[in-house]
Amino acid sequence: MASIRKLPSGKFFVEIRRKGLPHISRAFATERAAQEWARKIEVDIDNGVFHRKLEQAQVPTVQELLDRYEKEITPGKRGSMQEKYRLRQFQNQAFAPFATKPITAVTEQDIIAWRDDRLTKVSADTVRREMVILGAFFNQCGTGTKSRSGAIKRPGWRLIQDNPVELAGKPAGGSRRKRRVSEKEIEAIAQATGSAELAAFIHIAVETAMRRGEIAKLVRGDVMFEGNLGYVKLHEGETKNGSARSVPLTPAASAIVLQLIDGKEENDRLFTLKPDSYTQAFIRARRRARQRYEEECKARGEAPDPRFLTDVRLHDNRHEGTSRLFEVHKLGVMEAAEITGHKDLRMLRSYSHQEPLKLAGLLAKAAPQRYVAVAKETQDGYEVWLPDFPGVSMKAGTIEKAAAVASALMAGQSHRPVPTPIEVVARDNPGCRVFFVQ
Fold first, then answer.
1. Taking 70 as the threshold, does the pLDDT of residue 309 lie above it?
2. Which residues make beta-bridge pairs with 26?
3. d(CA 234, CA 223)
4. Contact between residue 219 and residue 234 where contact means Cβ atoms under 8 Å apart
């Protein structure tokens, strides 16, 4: 039972003692308030609610564990700066309402509510990236991080059973980015940089399809040349997927790299800035280039192209370089994957977007031109002609010889127009034999 007594100060002091529970007490200004609070606590104790609240009060909150995660786990990751920014967002209750909850109290519904609210403000791809980080955090709060084989890579803190992010599910991703940056755009941005180093960085990204962080880490000792041929070594643990690889240099990339390594020692870096600094410098250069372009269009009295030098990102240079491995250098998928470092060939496909007209041109070159021949039966055999070459015809004694006659007619033609579909020829020549000839 609760005991209530009046203090010399005039307040009413409530005490509740139950076996197995800590001493519970509180002071109130009025006796009525003291009685109401005592009844509520006793009801909660009888219903088991108080026990759960007490347990949760002893469990760390999401905010506290995010802080621990940032200090213990994040520093060992590539992209730790970007992850720290995201983690601090989640520590803000205005951004994530569940931030102040005990970790054991966060439910699938909390994540769903947060996810659906974020989708009204940012793209599905942004929410997916945020949920990847949040999901990794909850994995750490549970059993830990697992490899693809199911083995534990990093033991967790074992504070929760289930990952609420996995239960909630991520939103479907948007379409893959297909923006191709043109050579004209690359040159315009490089000229607008005002920095030879950034211009070299941009050209290396396009020529090698390397990632921003991979280029920024290059040192003189990573560059290998034998005669006019060269490549750079990317070491294990320094690439996005952690695997070492060697990236061959195109002649254009070789010329740039030779200038960069001139006079440098084995451990000297080729580029002096951090990866994020190149991104910011690229954005400024792109804006300057667009402004110059608009001024030039105005001077000529022309309307500027709304897509030229807009929505171009530094990472688009890797995208462009990967596409050129197929389109310009004619490499196969496995050869391209050796250069780009993609282990999942589906991801490689998302980086390679061929220009439709160039693909059409390749198909036109590769595909044989198939023209249609017509054989019309006459009293003394067959008359054979080619509808796409007016005035060209020849006699054939039998239908079996008509194909050879048509081939002979075809061999004598130097100009090759667009072939007429066989269906059209058949419709225009009823009762005749119609067939392809090359």
1. yes
2. 14
3. 10
4. no
